[in-house]
Automatic annotation (TrEMBL):
Residue ranges of domain 7,8-dihydro-6-hydroxymethylpterin-pyrophosphokinase in the record: 88-99
Catalytic activity from the UniProt record: 6-hydroxymethyl-7,8-dihydropterin + ATP = (7,8-dihydropterin-6-yl)methyl diphosphate + AMP + H(+)
Organism: Sporosarcina koreensis
Enzyme Commission number, as recorded: 2.7.6.3
Pathway assigned in UniProt: Cofactor biosynthesis; tetrahydrofolate biosynthesis; 2-amino-4-hydroxy-6-hydroxymethyl-7,8-dihydropteridine diphosphate from 7,8-dihydroneopterin triphosphate: step 4/4
Claim: RNA-binding is one of the keywords in the record: no
UniProt KW keywords: ATP-binding, Folate biosynthesis, Kinase, Nucleotide-binding, Transferase
Gene: folK
Enzyme class, broadest EC rank: transferase
Any one Gene Ontology molecular-function term assigned to this protein's record: 2-amino-4-hydroxy-6-hydroxymethyldihydropteridine diphosphokinase activity
Name of protein: 2-amino-4-hydroxy-6-hydroxymethyldihydropteridine diphosphokinase
Amino acid sequence: MNTAYISIGSNIGDRLEHLTEAVRALHTHERIEVAKVSSIYETAPVGYTDQEDFLNLAVSVETSLDPYTLLAACQQIENGLGRVRDIRWGPRTVDLDILLYNNDNIEAENLIVPHPRMGERAFVLVPLLEIAPAIGHPVTGIPFEVPGDEGVLLWKKIEEVEQLLLGI
Ligand code: GSY
């Protein structure tokens, strides 16, 4: 079995509903089990800033899928929830980014793991470190540290999210 960490974000329409649907879709996949969910954070947009605030969370999954098939499953969930890829870094119904897959270092055309920008993004690291506090970079072993949590506000606490999304 493999462990992967996935960052999920939404900033269009019913953001909570989109996150909920995305986590449920992962969890109901026959070869993916969502093991942990973080709190949900409301976060200021990074990159293309002229857009609405996001809701973001991180999940850990146990999966028998290889990373590329996991990526395809994530993209299928995005497409199923109506994601249209138009503006790069622009608004999105839902976005699932594979952050880490075991301790693998993957540099393929369609998949880079660890996610190349995760070390600079508080909206990724605040939720990730909540569910994996001691996690480090698979190559360097250096623990990830949040580069200041400005623009990242707690929106729904982890206990409520666990209940909502995992029924625990
Ligand atoms: O890479 C994920 C999409 N995205 C986000 C996001 O999820 N949250 C915030 N706060 N900013 C973002 N910019 C992009 S692109």
